[in-house]
Amino acid sequence: MRLGVRLRGLFMGLMLLAVAGPVMAVQPDEVLKDPAMEARARALGRDLRCMVCQNQSIDDSDADLARDLRVLLRQRLVAGDSDEQAKQYLVDRYGDYVLLRPPFKTTTLVLWLGPAALLLAGGWGAVMFFRRRTASAGPAGERPLDETEQRRLKRLLSNDREG
Amino acid sequence: MRRWTTLLPAAVFFVLVAFFAWRLVLITRGDAPNLIPSVMIDKPAPAFDLPPLVLDRPGVQASGLQGKVTLINFFSSWCIPCRAEHPLLVNLMNRPDIKGRMTLIGIDYKDRPEDGRGWLDRLGNPYDAIGMDRDGRVGIDFGVYGVPESYLIDRQGRIRYKQVGPFTAEDIREKLLPLLAELNK
Prior knowledge:
CATH class of the largest domain in chain B: Alpha Beta
Shape of chain A: elongated
CATH class of the largest domain in chain A: Mainly Alpha
Radius of gyration of chain B: 21 Å
Distance between the termini of chain A: 70 Å
Helix content of chain B: 25-40%
Distance between the termini of chain B: 65 Å
Largest interface: A-B, 16 and 19 residues
Number of strands of chain B: 7
Largest sheet of chain A: none
Structural class of chain A: mainly alpha
Strand order of the largest sheet of chain B: 5-4-3-6-7
CATH superfamily of the largest domain in chain A: Cytochrome C biogenesis protein
Oligomer: heterodimer
CATH architecture of the largest domain in chain B: 3-Layer(aba) Sandwich
Strand content of chain A: under 5%
């Protein structure tokens, strides 16, 4: 009986999770009648930054401005803009910052190539480090024991056997 | 035996410390990282034509910007920082050295007209002309992403300066007034 109640609770929890997953801020009254065009608007909206929250796309954000931009985006598409033109319309007003995927150009070189450059520099540093260590510990650093060391070694070994 | 490479990690560390310290100093001076530089600077102000908010002052048109220096101030009755900024604008427009050298245009952003009018009745009206931007579309054309925001337009109708957030007395003294003097030359 108790197990049954628990199972039912677990089941309901899972059901709620399943429903809660794909929630987006896009409101029913914003959705276009043409499903193909709505799909284009969704694809674009996911890549456009909400300027108010700054780390959410306009599709994810409940901010007023995000809603205005979603509506504007759909109006541009209905008016016959291509995806690129609709995106450019917003870039002209808000700058590259409105794009969640920054374009590859001279001002964004550090952003795009910086991580790879750091990785290469780190890799090179690691290679140099290990090479130097094996070099100093390698055959060049080895020499036979001299007489004093031989005697000390013998003494240590014999002590060991006695103990 | 000690080679320069052994000092490299420490050097990188200190470069990073210097960089972070520099950013922190900038933030304390008001250059917060969430302030996004405008792409509209030095571009012509976008076209707009908005109906008047109050009966005794005209609406606003982009064509009216030519030949004089204009400050366009986006405000709203529901905007709390605007409440702090408003008395500064009233004071500014009462200054004898500003009269005739700068036109102040207000754009009531995404507001109910009666609320906007009530705001001006209570707090005073520093604006030479006020337009109503009910759907916020003109705001988007200017690149507004919050209120208040203000744009200083030169005699050729180009945007020369953008203030994100409310003007402080310091902003007016150190940024707006020097730029205004330069644009009026």
